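Blackboard transcription, Thursday session:
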Amino acid sequence: MIDRVLDRIARIIEVTLALAFIFAVLLNFANVLGRYLFGISLLGADEVQIFIMIGMTFLGAAVVTRRNLHLRMDVLVRFLPTPVQLVLRVAEQLLLIALACFVLTQSYFYARQMLRLGRTSDMAGVPMWIPHGMVALGFGLMLIFAVCRLLHSARRTPEPPVEAKP
Amino acid sequence: MTFALAVVPITLLLLGFPIFMVLLTAVTVALVFFMHVPLAALHQNLFASVNGFALLAIPFFIYAGELMGRGSVAQRLVDFVQSGVGSVRGSLGVTAVGTSAIFGAISGASAATVATIGKVMVPAMRRAGYPETFIAGLITAVGAIDVIIPPSIPMIVYGAAAEESVARLYAAGVVPGLMIAAMLAVYVVWRAKRENFGAGEPFQLRVFLHAFGRSLWALGAPVIILGGIYGGVFSPTEAAAVACVYAALVTTFVFRELGWRDIVAAAASTVLFTGQILIIVACAGVFAWLLTVNQVPATMTAWLQSLNVSPWMLLLAINVLLLLVGCFLDPLSAILLLSPLLVPLVKAAGIDTVHFGVVVTVNLAIGLFHPPFGINIFVAQSVLGLKLETIYRGIIPFVIIYLVALALITYIPDLSLIGVRYLLARG
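(Written on the board underneath:)
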């Protein structure tokens, strides 16, 4: 049940980011057209595109965590005995939980500070707590996904199948 | 501090932990236990590392390649190149090289090229009686051209890590990329003549013109991307966005092969790729900041200068290191891990950082198909159904060709810098 919910959340994030990314492409294209055809630029378009990319980085990384698709150098580990590999997998989830907690805390307080100060981006006027909050949200989701995977390891139940590969 | 910046990351890397975690752990340990700076520096540097317009070119180029790779673009390009070189002995092999070079000028995703070009070329080469080891070696090796010929994703990442202009790197990659393609094509023809396979067919102007007409829209993508960048019309990021829109329009309305669902699905694939790569970019940015504030590159540079190592020797040592690293690590991760250390060294040795960027890219491109663990070997094995031992036996001559090219590119900087001098628009 919980796996289906988490998979659903990952899928919603993925599709939302995909649509936002298409918007970023169109925004960039519109800016190029505007500059050459009409001599005008969309103020703040670059900032919006960068903030979408920041979302793709940290929220996308959370989806990648859920799908277990992070890049790693695992050629040596493959030669280790299966029990050692299992121990390493548990250690990885424990370390990710610790790291995600740490970054989540730092990013949350930073985003909250942005909200309190009412900071906005220079050109587009986007409230800065939104892009900074995406770092916190991304690591928060990674934390949840890592806890879920750790519970699977503790119960010795198989992990959910990978949905897609990039 | 050595424990945090060297022992922790190397240990975790060897134990197979995700690369972003390797970097993030090193950074966290250093910040919490060894340094006296506000912990908010972690968030600030994570955010700042991906808060740059130039990095947008990475997802944009990936998306353009995704869109172009989903339809019949590869088949159209293959038909076009084959109709032009069909009279040459070994023409199908030359077609594989030529098509990969053109495909590389559209996307720059090596593994995708091996899969896309391989699916079209491997059955045709088998039917024409090409030796299986030759097919396996060529198709596995040929995709590496894609990361050298611009637009190249590793060059964008190197540009970000080394603070070097992506447009200059792209201009520098053209001659080395074409030179490697030419060397591969010459080897293919020589081998076909020596082993008497792949007889050519007479050139037919009508067939050539028909294939050219069918591939015209696909050929338009590299013209727009590279012409736009070198002509000073677009920045690399803008060229990538224009390429995305062009690819979407061509595949949807001209070729009528993709629908809206495919366009969103390609964007979703791009999101996953971006999540994989840019999280490493973000963590590598914090790691590089830590190295700098702890004066690690400066200390290494001073040590190297005390040894009086010549640039020739330094480049040789770096080539060996990168070839070794490239056997185990994907190019983007390797660039992000090593650039903060290597770029100050080569700068101090008086080596041009654009030239060095091309050397790094060629090195790591070789790692993409170098036995035993090059990623393209496994792509060829799984997607094309080629046997691993056949690939290993077939790949050796191609590794040697790339190594010869690497030596030429390393020790003749003008091969790279000539593009910077003559391809980029003045002013």
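Lecturer's comment: The first helix of chain B runs from residue 2 to 14.
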